[in-house]
Design brief:
Keywords: Amino-acid biosynthesis, Arginine biosynthesis, ATP-binding, Cytoplasm, Ligase, Nucleotide-binding. The protein is α/β, with parallel strands linked by helices. The chain has 14 helices and 14 strands.
């Protein structure tokens, strides 16, 4: 009986050529699994047919868009996590894809799971740790770590030799990944840090010269840290994010070009488009600024970096992640309100916020006359707050006096 291998299948260059390669190297039946993460009809069109024509015996296309947004992206948004201060972690789809691969592997009574990640990248870790968290019985196959293909150019040649249709060419060898949250661009001329990236490859975002010459004002309504409405109209999570992608992308918002430190130990350059996500992060940040007290806000900001590292490093299904989520959820209980933003020429500008839980109190903060704050109270506060500094200063002054006394004594002895 032939071995059954579940292949995480995107229809891109790498996973497209893995079907014939697996059949050449294993006595196996290939079952392709594609997750619809909002990458669009263009990428998913005829993907089942392509997988079957390439040699798969069966092909699944799983619609996981809603689960991706509600169970993954909204948790990320509430955390405020950005890897190395910029990257909004669009590869968060990997643990979800891995969970679906395990589910179908169990359903199909398969013995192995294959992924298309390279031996240089982070995704191999994300896929495999997620798979291990749900089952330890499946053999994991990672062709990029074992086959004789050594470059994208060779992979393109192999695809042509097998008559497999691909979008990648040697003139445009970019590696792209897309879902409802982002688009990533790597490879090609981006492999040199000396080159400005070519904005012609944008998929979700206008270049600045093509953005409107007028601003758009929007408002986003949150309930306990989760966006629920846009301009006072409630939408499903997928609809809301899709609409934000459209309007934010129109204004050229959400482009970053970064050199990031991969988990595997090397630096790499990537261009990322995250239009809707960038606007949501800004709005959420502004709402937290009026609703969270200083100590909670500062602690949450410190945790955000740890959360970003955890997500980037593939540790989504871990006890630490669950513990951090519990803290974050507690901080979001009163994060309900409305944030207004101005979108224009790549900028997302704060235009106002309100919340029934706001800790901002105009009567205390005003520069005008007030009846709630006695400015004389600050004098005593500064005296107490600055007491350690005062004592330290006294100590230094006494030490300096003692030093001069000793120096004088030494000079007198010399006489």
């Amino acid at each position: 009986m032939k071995e059954k291998i579940i292949l995480g299948y995107s229809g891109g260059l790498d996973t497209s050529i893995m079907i014939p390669w697996l059949k050449e190297n294993y006595d196996c039946e290939i079952i392709a699994v594609t997750c619809d993460l909002g990458q669009g009809e263009k990428e998913l069109k005829d993907i089942k047919e392509k997988a079957i024509k390439s040699g798969a015996s069966k092909a699944y296309v799983e619609d996981v868009k809603n689960q991706f947004v509600t169970d993954f992206l909204w948790k990320l948004l509430k955390s405020g996590a950005k890897y190395e201060g910029e990257y909004l972690l669009g590869t968060l789809s990997r643990p979800l894809i891995a969970k679906k691969l395990v589910d179908i592997a169990i359903k199909e009574n398969a013995t192995a799971i294959c992924h298309g990640a390279t031996g240089k990248g982070n995704d191999q870790v994300r896929f495999e740790l997620a798979i291990k968290s749900f089952s330890s019985k499946f053999k994991i196959i990672a062709p990029w770590r074992t086959w004789n293909i050594t470059s994208r150019s060779e992979a393109i040649d192999y695809a042509h030799s097998k008559n497999i249709p691909i979008q990648a060419t040697k003139k445009s060898p970019y590696s792209n990944d897309r879902n409802i949250w982002y688009v990533s661009h790597e490879g090609g001329d981006l492999e040199s840090t000396e080159n400005e990236h070519n904005s012609e490859f944008y998929q979700m975002t206008n270049t600045l010269d093509k953005t409107p010459n007028h601003a758009d004002f929007i408002s986003i309504q949150f309930f306990q840290g989760i966006p629920v409405a846009l301009n006072q109209i409630e939408y499903s999570p997928v609809e809301l994010l899709s609409k934000l992608n459209e309007i934010s992308g129109k204004h050229g918002i959400g482009i970053i070009d970064i050199i990031e430190n991969r988990l595997i130990g090397m630096k790499s350059r990537g261009v990322y488009e995250t239009p809707g996500g960038t606007v949501l992060y800004k709005a959420h940040q502004y709402l937290e600024s009026i609703c969270l007290d200083k100590d909670v806000l500062h602690m949450k900001q410190r945790i955000a970096q740890d959360y970003a590292n955890l997500v980037y490093n593939g540790l989504w299904y871990t006890p630490l992640k669950e513990a951090l989520d519990a803290f974050i959820d507690e901080t979001q209980k009163n994060l309900t309100g409305d944030v207004k933003l101005k979108l224009f020429k790549g900028h997302c500008l704060f235009s106002g916020a309100q919340s029934p839980s706001s800790l901002y109190h105009k009567d205390f903060s005003t520069f005008e006359k007030d009846d709630v704050y006695d400015q004389f109270d600050a004098q005593g506060f500064i005296q107490i707050y600055g007491l350690p500094i005062k004592i330290n200063s006294i100590m230094k002054e006494n030490s300096l006096k003692n030093f001069h006394s000793i120096e004088n004594m030494r000079e007198n002895n010399k006489l």
